Amino acid sequence: MSGAAGVPGQVAENVAVVRARIRAAGGDGVSLVAVTKTHGHDAIEQAFAAGCDAVGENYVQEIAAKLSGHASAGPVHMIGAVQTNKVRKIAPLVSLWQTVDRPSVVAEIARRGANGGCTDLLLQVNTTAEGTKSGCREDEIDALRTQAEACGLRVLGLMTIGPTDGDPTLTEASFRRLRALCDAQGLGICSMGMSGDFEMAVSCGSTMVRVGTAIFGERPPGH
After folding, report:
1. Does the pLDDT at position 3 exceed 60?
2. CB 3.0 to 4.6 Å from 162: which of 73, 166, 171, 219, for a disulfide?
3. Confidence (pLDDT) at 40
4. What are the structural domains of the chain?
């Protein structure tokens, strides 16, 4: 992890700018998740002080390091790939699993949830058909949701990541597809959009964006 995320006043100013861009894209009421990966615990504090709705972390080890012994001022979302054997380490620390995409992870979250761990989740869907990208197929959503709910978990919505190459046409198509899937499932949270494409995501119906660089600046080399 790097040290300080930046000057608190600058972070607050950046959050205000991001909020304004979300509104301009038609996104009144869109939740803003500040992505704090590679930044220290101070980034979490700055994000909540600036009015972000939640923070998002990508790595199990970072969540454990930042939150063990520190009370978070708000919800912390797991937004990185989830390994089944690491769920137990952060189950009591997170408020929402955003990247659940296979039965083994559902089962492990349910197991840890029975002992006080987080039981709220989003199903990550691969809407770009990229073989290197995480996320279940569209035809797997029903089975995963059924399994999760049978285990006592709450499926609150769906999540996706836009195309790796950032092609605007493909990005828009992937976002519109996730919005349609959310509607078909009757789910409230449609998590899509990051620093480079959150305005397009909002225009396509996103209800939750995950923004890091536009709030905290560029990450250190290698991250």
Report:
1. no
2. 171
3. 87
4. 8-216 (3.20.20.10)
